[in-house]
Amino acid sequence: MQRYTGRIAEIQLHLGERNALIACPVEIVPEPGQYLLAVNDDSLQATPLFMADFRSQGFLAAPPIPESWRPGDQISLMGPLGHGFSSPQYIQRLALVALGNTNARLLPLVNHDRLNQPSITLFSDAPLVGLPPDLEAFPLEDLGDSFNWADFFAVDVPREQLSILGDNFRNFQREPVVLRGQVLVHGCMPCSTLADCGICAVRIKRSWKLTCKDGPVFDLAGLLRGIAL
Ligand code: FES
After folding, report:
1. Range of the domain at 109
2. Å from CA of 209 to ligand 1 middle
3. Whether residues 59 and 156 fall in one domain
4. CB count, 10 Å around CB of 218?
5. For labelling, which of 34, 74, 130, 164 has a CA lying 20 to 30 Å from the CA of 65?
6. Same domain, residue pair 52 and 123
7. CATH of residue 97
8. 15 and 113, same structural domain?
């Protein structure tokens, strides 16, 4: 896999969220939901970097960012990796649902292609960092109200909290309608496609898929069916 050299141009702290501005070749900036694998020579630990926003000289990487990273550090980058969010046509009302402790990985879906945006609402209990001023946000306890409103869901969930996804969408699963949505599953990816270690596996319908390679964005209905088994 080809490696590129990037640089940590800036570390940003807002409401406890630690983002990193990554300077890198624009052709490797990941699409929403995709990731780059980053290695800092000091730590030798591979870190998946998801895009929180585009920047002219690279991108703003969503948390978590390793505490050891400092502005000016050089990093080795591989990717972009994985399957990101795809944009189904004919969406009029999009619900963004952040079930983890940050909204950052979902926000590129708002800033992206602004002219053809559906109506978008965010449901989240995470700190409201970096939200566009016209994006409405509600706590997760109001998510049930969106089931009659949204015609597509874009969800972000930590892999170790997949049961929360089932809990939050349980009512919707009982409805005799086709569930339309995609889920970004994130978490520990120790080999990130390089060794097929299997640690990142999730069940989609009746089969196991690797988050690092087959995801990290999966079809919502298939993931819910896998959780229910
Ligand atoms: S992290 Fe090893 S297979 Fe996905």
Report:
1. 93-228
2. 10
3. no
4. 23
5. 164
6. no
7. 3.40.50
8. no
The full DSSP string for the chain is --EEEEEEEEEEEETTEEEEEEE--GGGPPPTT-EEEEEETTT--EEEEEEEEEETTEEEEPSP--TT--TT-EEEEEEEESB-----TT--EEEEEE-SS--TTTTHHHHTTGGG--EEEEEESS---S--TT-EEE-GGGHHHHTTT-SEEEEEEEGGGHHHHHHHHHHHHTSSS---EEEEEES--SSTTSS---TTEEEETTEEEETTTT-BEEEHHHHHHHHH-
pLDDT in tens, 138-192: 999 998 888 888 889 999 999 988 888 888 876 655 555 567 899 999 988 877 7
Q: Which of 26, 56, 80 is at the close of a domain?
A: 80
Q: Which atom of ligand 1 is nearest to the CA of 211?
A: 4
Question: What is the distance in A from the centroid of ligand 1 to the CA of 42?
Answer: 23
Q: How many CA atoms lie within 13 A of 57 on its CB side?
A: 9
Are residues 220 and 148 located together in one domain of the fold?
A: yes
Ligand 1 neighbour 216 (Cβ under 6 A): no
Statement: the pTM of the whole predicted model exceeds 0.85 = yes
> Whose alpha carbon is nearest atom 1 of ligand 1?
189
Residue 86 belongs to some domain of the structure: no
CB of 189 sitting under 6 A from ligand 1: yes
pLDDT, tens digit (0-9, with 9 covering 90-100), for 49-81: 999 999 889 999 999 999 889 999 999 999 899
Q: What percent of the chain has pLDDT over 70?
A: 91
196 lines ligand 1 (CB under 6 A): yes
